[in-house]
Structure formats: structure tokens, C-alpha cells
């Protein structure tokens, strides 16, 4: 097997777009883990307060937080799957070119699956954001109603 430098250069050019995608996915994972950390921190505070005494408001908020955490965990799982699939695309680009293997269909399939995983991750993130915003509005309106 004789690998030419020009061949490797061509494969690197092909791999640049997936590498940028991988960077975006990694950044998104950071956002998701930060959101999950905030949810966990708030739930710990509420759990500590519930140990002191039962409060239906805390219990209701905890239920919402658990649901939000589930959505974020699903988004993290899908983003991670997307990242793994993109890594496989990059590896198959190099492997296919250097070993002269016909991997084009596998590369396309992995890329499409990566896009579906990324789309799913965004859907779950958006659902979590909507729930967080809705509950923030409800809490604000409830506080305003008690002040009047």
C-alpha cells in the first residue's frame, strides 16, 4: 500500500467539515451539561428543604426539575451519539481513502444518522427550554398575584 501525501491532503480537506461539526457538537454538549448542572443544583436545594418539612410547592417544582433533567439527559445522549457518528465518518474517510475501501454508503449513512441525532438533541433541548420558560412565567405570575 503506497499512500501519497496528496491523497492524505485530499482526505484532510474532506474531513474539515465534519471536524467543524464535531466542534459545534462539543460546544452544545457543554451547554447541555451546564443546564443539567443548574437543574441538579436546584433540585438538591429543594430536596434539602423538603427534609426539613413537606411543602407541595417544592414537591411540584422537583417533579418539573426531574422532567427537565430527563429531557436534558436525552439531549446529551443524542448529542454524544452525533459526535460518535461524526468521528466514525472522519475515520471512514481516512480508512476508505488509504485502504481503497468503498465506504461511501457507510459514510453517507453515518452522516445522515448523525444529523438525525443532532436534530433530536435540539428538539429535546427546545422542549426543556419551553418547560423552563413556562414555569418561570408561572412562578412570576403567582408571586405577582400574592403581592396584590
TrEMBL record:
One Pfam family cited in the UniProt record for this chain: DUF2721
TM ranges: 12-32, 71-94, 106-126
Superkingdom in the source lineage: Bacteria
Record keyword Membrane present: yes
Keywords associated with the record: Membrane, Transmembrane, Transmembrane helix
Name of the protein: DUF2721 domain-containing protein
Amino acid at each position: 500500500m503506497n499512500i501519497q501525501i496528496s491523497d492524505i491532503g485530499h482526505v484532510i480537506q474532506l474531513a474539515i467539515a465534519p471536524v467543524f461539526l464535531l466542534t459545534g457538537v462539543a460546544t452544545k454538549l457543554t451547554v447541555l451539561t451546564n443546564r443539567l448542572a443548574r437543574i441538579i443544583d436546584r433540585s438538591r436545594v429543594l430536596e434539602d428543604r423538603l427534609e426539613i418539612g413537606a411543602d407541595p410547592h417544592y414537591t411540584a417544582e422537583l417533579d418539573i426539575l426531574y422532567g427537565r433533567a430527563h429531557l436534558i439527559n436525552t439531549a446529551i445522549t443524542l448529542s454524544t451519539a452525533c459526535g460518535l457518528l461524526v468521528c466514525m465518518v472522519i475515520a471512514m474517510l481516512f480508512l476508505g481513502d488509504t485502504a481503497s475501501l468503498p465506504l461511501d454508503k457507510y459514510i453517507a449513512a453515518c452522516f445522515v444518522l448523525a444529523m438525525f441525532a443532532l436534530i433530536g438533541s435540539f428538539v429535546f433541548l427546545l422542549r426543556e427550554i419551553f418547560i423552563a420558560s413556562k414555569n418561570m412565567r408561572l412562578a412570576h405570575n403567582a408571586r405577582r398575584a400574592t403581592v396584590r
